[in-house]
Specification:
Blueprint (H helix, E strand, L loop, with lengths): L2 E5 L3 H13 L3 E5 L2 H10 L4 E5 L7 H15 L6 E5 L4 H6 L4 E4 L4 H11 L18
């Protein structure tokens, strides 16, 4: 079963994403800021990270840079990091090492597309798309 890390300072968004991923058969951990995310990736392997850009303490761009540096030092395969944001930060997110971007609020079908695009085929489960219009 794939494991995803959700990083967002908004607890409602984190909880909703955990719930939506659970519906899709994916386990998720969450972190409230970039510092927590960097700490978690040092102790766990994730197949995907969904990272908010604007957060207090350490934002998503700084956290992505720290994660990429950690991967490089240890010679690890880079985990896909997908920016989630309510603003138009796509170019900046990609330039800072994130792999993709989607805006919130997003529908479950948008999340499903990200998973289809970025989770390895062997890690995907077959999910029911009956709730694809549910937004977070």
């Amino acid at each position: 079963m794939p494991k995803v890390l959700i990083v967002d300072n908004n607890i409602t968004i984190r909880t909703t994403l955990v719930h939506q991923l659970d519906k899709l058969g994916i386990r998720a951990d969450s972190a409230a800021n970039g510092f927590e995310a960097v700490r978690r990736i040092r102790n766990w392997h994730y197949e995907l990270i969904l990272m908010a850009i604007q957060m207090p303490e350490m934002d998503g761009l700084e956290a992505t840079a720290a994660i990429r540096a950690h991967e490089k030092v240890l010679g690890l395969e880079p985990v896909p990091i997908i920016a989630i944001s309510s603003s138009d930060d796509k170019d900046r997110a990609i330039a800072m090492g994130m792999n993709d971007y989607f805006e919130k609020p997003a529908l479950l079908k948008d999340l499903q597309k990200i998973l289809d695009d970025w989770l390895p085929l062997e890690k995907r489960t077959h999910w029911d798309s009956s709730d694809v219009n549910e937004a977070f």
